[in-house]
Specification:
The chain has helices spanning 11-20, 30-33, 84-100, 122-129, 153-164, 175-190, 198-207, 245-250, 252-264, 286-293, and strands spanning 2-5, 41-42, 45-49, 52-57, 59-62, 65-68, 78-79, 105-109, 133-144, 168-172, 212-219, 222-231, 235-243, 270-275, 277-278, 283-284, 298-308. The protein is 34% helix and 31% strand. The two termini are 18 Å apart.
Amino acid sequence: MQVRRYRAEDASAWNAFNAQAVNGHFLFDRGFMDYHADRFEDASLIVEDEAVPVAVLPLNSTEGEVWSHQGLSFGGLVHQGLGTGAVMEALDACAAHLRAEGAATLNYKVLPWIYPSLPAQGDLYWLFRRDAVLVRRDVSAAIDYRARGRVSGRRDRGARKAQRAGLALQRSTDWAGFWRLLEGVLAERHGAAPVHSLGEIELLAGRFPDQIALCVAADAGGLQAGVVMFRSAQVAHAQYIAVGEAGRETGALDGLFDHLIRLYATTHRYFDFGISNTDQGRVLNEGLMRQKEEFGASAVVHDLYRVAL
């Protein structure tokens, strides 16, 4: 196998390959990856066999290290069904290429197992064989629609409360209104800010209208809660979640999640609430995790490994 750097003229071929991959994701589309190209030095690789692409690896580089792209939630070797031996050969070739370019370390984010269309964990075996060190583990909560856990009475009562309040649960294009709510909630409760700016999320939603959607709970008085959904083939993922003071009184978020979970049950295999960690995964927000689990979700981890090259 031969490895070369991704070039701008490869964008169409890269996107077509990702769209057919068993572990592809719209986050790996160049239309998503390159929206923040000014903030990251792209180091993505294309693996070829007799000049035919067999895998791609989204990467960026910084200070002598290479990362599964730091602008993405996860990463890993993207392929269209390579066997384990071929995955190991491809990653060995990538490691050799990166070493030849002067990189000393590869920081590799593993794609969580719920995302591929079929089992694709050959890279985990490669990481084991390369003595990779697990340096971060975040924990998300996901519903498996084939085997959903028990929904708590508290979540059921919240959803019924929202129904009695007559809230409209629907898709919205009021990104500015939701972003004001989200920024206020994150600043007040977590001392944080959204990863994306309003302009960036509007840009991405315009580029990926089938994958990115804002869903809200509202009444005549305005927006009470909202969730930004990132939808891939297997997983409906809640990327951003916010509820205001009025929404806490009406059960708006419980009602909205109940609506969304039912909605995606017909189109997706998993509903993912996102991680509940701070401090590089070392601290678990137990209350937030419990809230998600009370919808019938259970733990799915997001791992980051460090490989010496």
